């Protein structure tokens, strides 16, 4: 194409030259000069015009590409802000996540992340010093210069990091799998704020720390801290798989078994089973506290959820004795009632469902198992009390082990002594056996001798009896002869 255009221009120039040559007799020189200059300029300016058209085409293409990128960026911005618009259950947009973060913030109260452990001392009264990171530190010496002609105003004093005397809860931060930011991974205990500046806070323990907590702090392993004004609340939603929706089989949605097994790797099988079954259909042997019922309202119904008592959650919890919200951040406002329309479904505890059914407001749809939520403040106290009991039991068992060990040592020494005596007795037994055999042989010899002697004595005895009989007979004979002679002499 460029060569064809160049050829065309050459042909035009030649034609123009030929026409001027033909008209040389009729035209004056200035007319011919004007035509020549015009044609020359027309040819010369073709090239800038071609370059401008080419540049315009390139810029037009860039404009179209930028419009496509802008449209893509606007769509991406909407997706990031609102989540997947084709999936009404999606909660991965900035706005849904912000709402969830705000809900978690209500439960946790104020919190301070990324504090650095500066010093810790457990000699005497425990003292722990935490500091803000250098990037977040407040420059107390920086003073803004007043504008020219304006009256100088006193610079506002920076606020302390925390309120003195405040009870807070410390967590050691770390990086979990697939998590790029530090998150709390270890509970370090309950603390009281002793002193605070804009960039540093000094804490002391409200009660003795457990050995593993003190070891984490003293060894420096817990270098990064998160401080919470309130202990976080337990919930069902954190263990539901991402993108899972509630259905008739599970009122919460599918439980993320990998997350449960990873978080509760040190827990017992029974505990993990409670988390994995959360939201599933009820079983006959489930305890009453875990039985929840889905009801469907047969007519409009309203229930009061706001307590007449108005106080912050730090003064006794989020709810009163009847379960109504006392913290203004959780109250619905207005009349304080939540209204349900006919056909609307709700998940309530078994006794509440029975009451609604008895009053004719609702019918029972299905029953589900929901694990009882943990009150971490009570759970931590129970764990501490259990550890104290186990510690006392350990001391008792250690003492009993020492006594048992002493008894074992005495028994071993006795066995050693008895072993020596056994050897001596065995030697005595062998000697006794030798003597017994000798005595037995001597006894047998004596028995034989006695037997022979007895037989001899028996023979002698019988011989003596025979001799005695002969003597008696002989004596009788003599006596008879004497008596005969005596009688004859008379």
Describe the structure.
This protein has 490 residues and is of the alpha+beta class. Helix content is 48%, strand content 16%. It has helices at 2-22, 29-82, 94-108, 211-218, 257-263, 269-276, 350-358, 376-489, and strands at 111-121, 127-131, 167-174, 183-196, 200-205, 224-228, 291-297, 301-304, 337-340, 345-349, 362-369. It has a six-stranded antiparallel β-barrel. It has a three-stranded antiparallel β-sheet with strand order 10-7-11, with helices on one face. Helix 1 (2-22) runs antiparallel to helix 2 (29-82). The chain is elongated, with a radius of gyration of 57 Å. The chain starts with a helix and ends with a helix.
List the helices and strands and how they pair.
Elements (H helix, E strand, L loop, with lengths): L1 H21 L6 H54 L11 H15 L2 E11 L5 E5 L35 E8 L8 E14 L3 E6 L5 H8 L5 E5 L28 H7 L5 H8 L14 E7 L3 E4 L32 E4 L4 E5 H9 L3 E8 L6 H114 L1
Antiparallel strand pairs: 1-2, 1-6, 2-5, 3-4, 3-6, 4-5, 7-10, 7-11, 8-9
Helix pairs in contact: 1-2
What would a concise description of this structure say?
With 490 residues, the chain is α+β, with helices and mostly antiparallel strands.
């Amino acid at each position: 194409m460029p060569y064809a255009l160049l050829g065309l221009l050459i042909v035009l120039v030649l034609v123009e030259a030929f026409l001027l040559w033909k008209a040389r007799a009729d035209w004056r020189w200035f007319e011919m000069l004007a035509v020549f200059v015009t044609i020359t300029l027309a040819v010369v300016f073709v090239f800038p015009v071609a370059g401008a058209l080419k540049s315009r085409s390139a810029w037009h293409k860039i404009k179209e590409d930028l419009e496509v990128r802008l449209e893509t960026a606007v769509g991406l911005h909407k997706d990031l802000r609102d989540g997947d618009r084709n999936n009404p259950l999606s909660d991965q947009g900035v706005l849904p996540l912000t709402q969830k973060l705000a809900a978690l913030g209500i439960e946790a109260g104020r919190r301070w992340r990324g504090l650095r452990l500066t010093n810790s001392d457990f000699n005497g009264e425990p003292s722990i010093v935490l500091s803000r990171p250098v990037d977040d530190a407040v420059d107390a010496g920086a003073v803004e210069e007043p504008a020219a002609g304006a009256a100088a105003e006193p610079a506002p004093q920076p606020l302390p990091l925390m309120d003195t005397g405040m009870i807070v809860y410390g967590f050691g931060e770390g990086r979990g799998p697939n998590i790029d930011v530090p998150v709390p991974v270890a509970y370090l205990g309950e603390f009281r704020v002793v002193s605070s500046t804009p960039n540093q806070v000094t804490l002391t323990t409200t009660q003795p720390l457990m050995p593993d907590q003190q070891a984490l702090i003293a060894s420096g392993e817990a270098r990064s801290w998160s401080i919470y004004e309130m202990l976080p609340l337990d919930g069902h939603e954190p263990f539901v798989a991402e993108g899972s929706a509630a259905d008739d089989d599970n009122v919460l949605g599918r439980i993320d078994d990998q997350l449960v097994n990873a978080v509760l790797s040190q827990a017992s099988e029974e505990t993990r089973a409670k988390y994995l079954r959360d939201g599933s259909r009820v079983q006959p042997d489930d305890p009453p506290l875990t039985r929840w019922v889905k009801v469907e309202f047969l007519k409009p119904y309203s229930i009061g959820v706001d307590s007449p008592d108005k106080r912050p959650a730090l003064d006794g919890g989020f709810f009163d004795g009847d379960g109504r919200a006392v913290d203004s951040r959780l109250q619905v406002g207005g009349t304080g009632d939540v209204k349900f329309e006919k056909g609307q479904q709700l998940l309530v505890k078994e006794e509440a469902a029975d009451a609604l059914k008895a009053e004719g407001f609702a019918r029972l749809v299905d029953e589900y198992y929901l694990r009882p939520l943990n009150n971490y403040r009570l759970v931590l106290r129970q764990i501490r009390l259990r550890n104290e009991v186990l510690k006392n039991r350990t001391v008792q068992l250690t003492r009993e082990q020492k006594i048992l060990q002493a008894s074992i040592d005495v028994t071993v020494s006795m066995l050693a002594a008895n072993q020596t005596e056994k050897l001596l007795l065995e030697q005595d037994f062998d000697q006794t056996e030798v003597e017994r055999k000798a005595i037995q042989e001597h006894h047998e010899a004596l028995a034989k001798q006695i037997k022979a002697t007895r037989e001899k004595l028996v023979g002698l005895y019988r011989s003596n009896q025979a001799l005695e009989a002969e003597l008696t007979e002989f004596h009788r004979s003599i006596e008879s002869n004497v008596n005969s002679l005596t009688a004859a002499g008379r």
